[in-house]
Known about the structure:
The chain is mainly alpha-helical. Helices cover 51% and strands 0% of the residues. It has one domain (17-104). The longest helix has 15 residues, at 39-53. The chain is elongated.
Amino acid sequence: MGSCGEPEANNAPPFNTEEYFRRYQLMNLFTKECVFENELERQIFMAINVCRYDPKVFVPIVQRVRDRCPLVSNSGNTGILLKQLGSMIRLPPVIYDVPAFDACR
Length: 105
């Protein structure tokens, strides 16, 4: 078993946020209004919207982290998170709003 940051030989492929974001047709991020300061900001925005659209898609990811990482596996909150992800309903996406993004920066 690898540590939290080490990939395992039989590990599942990494979660591709952009693939799910496009598959679910959440919104077009390639407009002049959608300007992200960096790739991490863009990835987080997509992940939040994927989670709002289909929270259950994150269940296997949380389970893998729980199984691989002792710091997480010993936490009592992982089970709560898995239960929440499995029971959440679809929520509308977060819309890219320039003034709101500017206020958060």
